[in-house]
Amino acid sequence: MSEVTAQDVAEESAMKKKQSAAEMPKPVEGSAPINASAHTPLYHQAYLVLRDRIVGGDYPFNTVLPSEAKLCEEFDVSRITIRRALNELAEEGYVTRQQGRGTTVCYEMHARAPKANFDGLIENLLIVGKRTEIELLAFEMRKAEAIVASALELREGDLVQYVVRRRRLSGAPFSHVVSYVPGDIAKGIGRKDLSAKPLLAILEARGVHMTSARQTVTAVAASPDLASALEVEVGVPLTRVTRIVHDQNKRAVEYIVAHYRPDKYVFEINLRRAEDSHERKWIA
Fold it and tell me: What's the pTM?
């Protein structure tokens, strides 16, 4: 890891003076990818931009990043700022830094991240379950709160099975899933099964034939409890999925609230071009 020198400190001081004297920058094409007027420290902005490039594949595995001098020029910041951003990337396992060899990307999880597409929902969930490790965090029978009762078409206070599980891939957590199943359907499902198999597989083995699901996907900031469970910082964006699964009798048999790390789990939608008498459009 590179050391901070007196020259670095002098550069940082000069850069701060330059930024404090400058007017608020206007975003224009080709401008630096960070905002000097934002409350977020410059080094952390640079870290976030570089991390997103790594996770997004702009800097693939084993790629050597641009030199500190080139990054300083691109981001319009001092060497000490870029160095701090690169050191943070190294501490979190995205890159390795070696004197004389530069900074090399060592992150390659994205290429192996589980994928789920919307046209094969149930099958994809079963496949993901087989590829990952399950940790059972909570398991109990409880009375359904209003939102759960509504989702499962039950009366408030009816018994449901409440389960919280975390999934890991190659040792790293990527999902935190809370599921609710009506009490009569969940009868006989125990900790041993839930610690070893996907819940969908358990239900199907018990004769529950699932035929449809309604799902919503959005983005949320990680709360303290989710951040701890998924080993990320509080406030980091997460993918939130809510899903209600129905059986062949159109009965709601499972309600799920799941949070995924978007750097380790990918949703994919297959589209096709359709045309009717009025318009052409993309449909899933």
Answer: 0.63
